[in-house]
Amino acid sequence: MIYAILSLAVLGAVFGIVLGVAEKKFTVEVDPRVEEITKILPGANCGGCGFPGCGGYAEAVVAGTAPLNACTAGKDEVRQKMAQIMGIAAGAAQEPKVAQLMCKGGKDKAPLLYEYEGVEDCHVAATMFKGPKACSYGCIGLGSCVQVCPFGGIKMGSNQLPEIDYNICSGCGACVNNCPQHVLKLVEASKLVHVRCSNKEKGKQAKEACQVACIKCKLCEKNCPEGAISVVADAEGSIAVIDYAKCTGCGICVTKCPTNALEIMLPINVSNNEEQNLTVKHPPAGCNHCGLCQ
What is the CATH number of domain 95-190+268-294? Predict the structure, then answer.
């Protein structure tokens, strides 16, 4: 009995020494600045910076492989604090971006091919002829973008189209990356003229699918004084595209569009969400509609 106890004690001591040596030898030193930067980041883990969550971005900043202005949700305040922690100049701030919906085909404009009865998720509905609407390019309207917005900046309108609250939108891109129809785009907040259509079918087919579809008439292209808009073709078809670097927001193209597929917005005041602390909306337990499984 005594020998057994002594044997166990000796083995315990040996294993303890081995584990202690292994801990010292294989310990990965973590730069304390990583934890400091992680604490001041919003904690949304939205991926807008291009890294796997706030922790991944903090590590990249400390390693010198990520810029200080990549956190769109943190805005200028976070950028300044990171610069202090890193002991470097903050650099110039990027122009804030917001999500824009490139579709006006709500339930009153785009007819239905069939009545959808299933999981209220755009990714699921997209597997069935790209959704119930006659326009296979438009917004499906089941609100998956609402589910993934980490700040609660999107809600579904009465017309079954997402409505973006620009006082909340941080430009993180979570909704853009999640949309199976790719009708959400990140655009600089100062850009106010947009083509609210993504249908690349020929004019007649596009108009049959949606009353406010781009019919590729090229009136916008012919009348733009800056050459900032043109009908661009690819393997799927063609659609009017705005070169935001050239667009001055004059709105001439909007007045010439015969189907109202183009729209000019009122100025977006991003100063409200530049200073406020955005509250992260944590998803409920279970499926958070990330769309990865598709």
Answer: 3.30.70.20
- Residues forming a β-bridge with 239: 232
Residue 183: pLDDT band (50, 70, 90) is: very high
pLDDT score of 286 more than 60:
no
Give the model confidence (pLDDT) of 16-25 as tens digits.
Answer: 787 777 666 6
Same CATH fold assignment for domains 32-86 and 95-190+268-294 = no
- Cβ atoms of 167 and 152 within 8 Å: the answer is no
Residue tagged 């004084």 (tokens):
225
* Tokens at 31, concatenated: 């730069």
Decide: 96 and 270 in contact? Cβ < 8 Å.
yes
3 state DSSP class of 224: coil
Could you tell me how far CA 23 lies from the centroid of its own chain?
A: 41
The CATH class for the domain spanning 192-266 reads: alpha beta
Angle at the Cα of 210 (from 208 to 215), degrees rounded to 5?
Answer: 75
Could you give the CA distance from residue 197 to residue 210 in angstroms, rounded to a whole number? 9
Torsion of CA 143, 146, 149, 152, to 10 degrees: 180
Q: Compute the Cα dihedral for 73, 77, 81, 82 and give only its sign.
A: positive
CATH number of 32-86: 1.10.15.40
